[in-house]
Amino acid sequence: MARSRLPDLDYVERTRHVAINLLFLMPWVLVYQLALLGSGSRLDNAAAAWLRSGIAMLGRQGFVVMSLVASLVLCLIVLLRLREASRDRGVFGGMIVESVVYGLLLGLVASVLSRTIPMGRPHAPPGTLGTSGLTSGTIAALRTHVEGLGLALGAGIFEELVFRGLLVGGLLLVVGRGLGVGRTLTACIAIPAAAWVFSAWHHWGAGAEPWSQAVFTFRFHAGLVLGVIFVTRGLGIAALAHGIYDVLVLTQR
């Protein structure tokens, strides 16, 4: 008698697949965009604004071409995953649970790391990562709008798209695959580098936060944690975990 075949479902591997992560993030990005529309476009987060500025530099024709390419890529991803749809559905619930757990632990772990490995000053209190992706002067306004929760969620997600998805992912691709450096070594270089840029970025340019070694240290360690989550669990879980953390901080202020 032939043995029944076990379902071919490797949760860990599936949740690290690029297509799964993009599909997982699409509804959360939609929540952010709806929240932005609901706020009358008065509020935005810095990472999303930075991406929009870069797109604007392409001009109208460049924007149309990029939009078409992005739409075709997303459609292709959806079509390619249709055959796996019944099995893919089973991973999204687990990804949400993981994101919630990591989001709840992010502040605590970053705070402990800041105490253990200080960078010149005492650690910053939990919450200093906060709604860091939001432009200055918006925190009070967010508290008075339901849309603020969606914007806080989007702040974390867009920062992960930039600093982990583009920066860490780009370094893994260029240094790892392009130059033939091992993935582990590349990750050990890319994660701290992206964490440093992520933390320093909040203190650069007009409207940036005043310099604080304690806050920089906390964000750097939070960036390390998010980088590890990105490399080991994928962009979707890292992005939603960051977004959930930002929402928690906003509701506690």
Helix content: over 70%
Portion in beta strands: under 5%
Please provide the ordered H/E string of secondary-structure elements: HHHHHHHHHH
Low-confidence stretches: 1-8, 122-128, 130-137
Largest β-sheet summary: none
Structure in words:
Helices cover 74% and strands 0% of the residues. It has one domain (11-252). It has helices at residues 11-15, 18-38, 46-56, 59-81, 85-116, 139-143, 147-178, 183-201, 213-233, 235-252. By secondary structure, the chain is mainly α.
Topology:
Blueprint lengths: L10 H5 L2 H21 L7 H11 L2 H23 L3 H32 L22 H5 L3 H32 L4 H19 L11 H21 L1 H18 L1
Helix pairs in contact: 2-4, 2-7, 2-10, 3-7, 5-9, 5-10, 7-8, 7-9, 7-10, 8-9, 9-10
For the structure shown, list the relevant keywords.
disordered N terminus, 253 residues, mainly alpha, globular
Structure described in brief:
This protein is mainly α and 253 residues long. The protein has ten helices and no strands.
